[in-house]
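Duplicate of earlier report; EthD domain-containing protein input re-posted below.
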Amino acid sequence: MAPFSTLFTVFTVLFGATLAACAPSNTGLLQMVTHVKRRPDFTQEEFWKYWETQHAPKVVPLATYFNITRYQQVQVGGKIVPTAGGASAPESNELVDFDGIAMFLYKSADVLTEMLSHPYYIEVVEPDEHKFIDKEAYGNGMVATYIGKHIEAVDKGRDVWVGDKATIKKYQKIFNTYL
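Output:
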């Protein structure tokens, strides 16, 4: 089991950031985007394979139980400034590596809080994170986390934007002149 202080730190950062982002959107959902760093003894390919084939199946029952709308993994690497969830500025201007992006779409701060404090997360999911995520890195391996309102503009190839209809009509008309 993970040390209480590590879980408490992760929980506090995510809970605070989620509360800060609770304003409703046209979907009524919040989006959390987290840049994740792999353990140094994993290649990027090994990290991606483990994350997709071993870790995701552990997350799925928990996420579905808490009605998480969407859990996605983006297999991509790069560099980013380290930023804690809810922070208004990065921790430093020195770039850090990341090896994937985890995205969660959920109803409220309470949902995420309950999920991260559930015994299954504490006993199964969180210990599994130590197998492939660099928990020594900034943010326990979650090197940059952003939480905000989820606004949809296009979904499944269709316009779902709920803004001013005259504005969308104006730009659709302009676009049509290019066809």
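The domain at 4-176 is CATH 3.30.70.100 (Alpha-Beta Plaits).

Merging into the original ticket.
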